[in-house]
Design a protein that fits this description.
The protein is an alpha+beta fold. The chain has two domains: 113 residues, Phosphorylase Kinase, domain 1 (2-Layer Sandwich); 210 residues, Transferase(Phosphotransferase), domain 1 (Orthogonal Bundle). Helix 2 runs parallel beside helix 4, helix 8 runs antiparallel to helix 10 and helix 10 crosses helix 12.
């Protein structure tokens, strides 16, 4: 029995090594070619990769169960048409609500995103700030399905303001305590990805719609199709080597998010400003819109004048003097995250500390002249 196991282990090792060498050779061949078709890079010839990784997922659902849960993908259950897959609301047996992502593998972009998402989910341990994956469905060769736990309060983009029952003219705004709780929860999720994962990972799609909210407005990070290993990490990973090659080619493409922690921090800064100002859509806007918004907003965020921030605070917020200091502190943290120089943006673990102790940020910072949150938290510019 032992000899049989040893032989099997050597065989599997040889197959994996051969596959890895083939991928490396393919990458080198592509990189040496003067006429690279970037679209073809999204359809590598290793279909077994999907099935190998998916065997580690929790539960296996049949295609019949998926159809029943979504009422055969009824349009009424469609949540959104995503760039990485279509998102549907579903109900499993015993009335369990779920969210099902339907991925069309004929789409090169969706296939690539699915590979990235499944790779991340099978290599990283579950975390209370990452949306729970319940299982998957493998039956179709042309489509794959990921089944996630349903978040009762949707996402931040749809929950910051909610209509009061049938009164469509009256919006209920999340109070400041809940907004601060959401900011801390999202920071915990990103700090986990950046500093606790092995290897460290970058989300690359942080915006209000990717911050999911469970009962009690507990945060779960969603939109995981862009997650990848951080640039510059040298620890080996069989599939990451190929994905890195793709990213290297894409890095010169305008609008392509870089696989750096500083990029996540910048995006998180936009989310923080949404929480402070109530201006929905900033975190998902194009850079020209964001630039215009920041030119108007940032002059009102000053460490030397707390009252200035009242000019940009969401008017629906009811805040007293003590809460105003917390709002002011979050605005200052957001400003640091939005520094045009990526090397001067704080690390997520320090952002988390600042949000957990917002009054310490402004009170300690008032004793300095640097304006860089130096005393409040050890904001280190190193990457």
């Amino acid at each position: 029995m032992s000899r049989m196991y040893d032989n099997w282990e050597r065989l599997v090792g040889a197959v994996l090594k051969r596959e890895e060498l083939r991928q490396i050779a393919m990458c080198e061949s592509l990189s040496s070619s003067s006429s690279i078709n970037s679209t073809s890079l999204f359809i590598p010839d290793f279909p077994n990769f999907l099935d190998i990784n998916e065997t580690k997922f929790k539960d296996v659902f049949s295609y019949h169960q998926i159809l029943e849960a979504t009422d055969e993908f009824n349009d009424e259950n469609l949540i959104k048409l995503g760039h990485s897959g279509d998102i549907f609301y579903g109900t499993l047996e015993r009335g369990i609500p779920v969210v099902i992502k339907k991925v069309d593998l004929y789409s090169p972009m969706k296939r690539k995103s699915y590979m990235s998402e499944s790779s991340f989910l099978t290599k990283v341990v579950s975390h209370p700030r990452i949306v729970p994956l319940l299982g998957h469905c493998l039956e179709n060769n042309t489509e794959k399905f990921l089944v996630y736990e349903h978040m009762r309060n949707g996402d931040l983009s749809s929950s910051l303001f909610k209509k009061r029952r049938s009164d469509y003219s009256n919006l209920r705004s999340l109070d400041w305590i809940t907004r601060l709780k959401i900011a801390i929860g999202a920071a915990e999720g990103l700090a986990y990805l950046h500093h606790e994962c092995i290897p460290p990972h970058v989300h690359r799609d942080i915006q209000a719609s990717s911050i999911l909210l469970d009962v009690g407005y507990e945060v779960r990070l969603g939109s995981l199709s862009e997650v990848c290993a951080r640039e510059g990490d040298t620890r080996p990973s069989r599939m990451i080597s190929f994905l890195r090659f793709q990213q290297a080619l894409e890095r010169d493409t305008p609008g392509t998010p870089n696989a750096t922690c500083a990029y996540d921090v910048y995006c998180f800064g936009k989310v923080l400003l949404e929480l402070v100002t109530g201006k929905l859509g900033i975190s998902s806007s194009n850079e020209s819109t964001v630039k215009e918004f920041l030119e108007i907003t940032l002059p009102y965020i000053s460490i030397n004048d707390k009252e200035l921030v009242t000019n940009i605070v969401d008017p629906s917020l009811i805040i007293d003097e003590d809460l105003l200091e917390e709002v002011w502190a979050m605005a200052i943290v957001a400003r640091s995250c939005l520094n045009p120089n990526p090397n001067r943006r704080p690390l997520m673990r320090y952002i988390l500390k600042a949000l957990e102790n917002p009054l310490k940020v402004v009170r300690d910072e008032n004793t300095t002249s640097s304006g860089g949150l130096s005393n409040a938290v050890p904001f280190d510019s190193r990457r």
